[in-house]
Design brief:
With 188 residues, the protein is of the alpha+beta class. The chain has a single domain, classed as Alpha-Beta Complex (tt1808, chain A). Helix content is 20%, strand content 35%. The N and C termini lie far apart (35 Å).
Length: 188
């Protein structure tokens, strides 16, 4: 399906009203995203809260809904807005994260475009990507192979994903997202 052409006046109005916080531009084509459901927002908030201390200890920023930009494209012509971004301060500018995010988290809602973003994230140098299903809490993980491609990595036999970006493990278990930090498991 071809995206509809979005008039500049609509984009300007969305920006003026603050409705564009989750919008994205894919190679110059605007993608307007609906606000996440209550469960989507709850999961995002809990994940940021749970990982904040670990990020602080590692000297990394954790940012909800920050733009992740192709650093080779000036302005706002090619970026995505994932649910959570973890990045080193030197990878950030006023507009957001410039490609080299340590970790990007997409919370996948039914019918969204999370999987269509994988190639972009790999190409711009994102080191690690998680896609967490909003409803089942299943976790899928990709790591950058250094050649601009993200490769999916399976969970351990007991379902845990050991993150490269942070000393954290995550897994979905019976509709619950679990996070293990320093051996302690908490539900998110």
């Amino acid at each position: 399906m071809r995206p509809a052409v979005v008039p500049d006046s609509l984009i300007a109005e969305r920006r003026r009203l603050g409705l564009d916080k989750r919008d994205e531009v894919w190679e110059g084509v605007p993608h307007m995203n609906e606000p996440g459901s209550l469960e989507h927002q709850r999961l995002e908030g809990r994940l940021v809260t749970t990982l904040s201390g670990v990020c602080d200890s590692a000297g990394l920023l954790i940012l909800p809904e920050a733009g992740v930009f192709d650093p080779d494209v000036p302005g706002y012509k090619d970026f995505r807005t994932p649910d959570v971004v973890v990045a080193d301060r030197p990878a950030t500018t006023e507009r957001g994260v410039e490609g080299l995010a340590a970790l990007v988290v997409e919370i996948r809602s039914p019918g969204d475009e999370s999987f269509e973003k994988i190639r972009f994230y790999g190409r711009i140098g994102v080191a690690e990507l998680l896609i967490i299903d909003r409803d089942t809490k299943d976790v899928r993980r990709w790591v950058n192979n250094g050649a601009g491609t993200l490769t999916e990595v399976p969970a351990s036999p007991d379902g845990w994903h050991d993150l490269a970006a942070l000393p954290v493990e995550l897994r979905g278990s019976a509709g619950d997202l679990q996070v293990r930090i320093d051996g302690e498991v908490q539900s998110v």
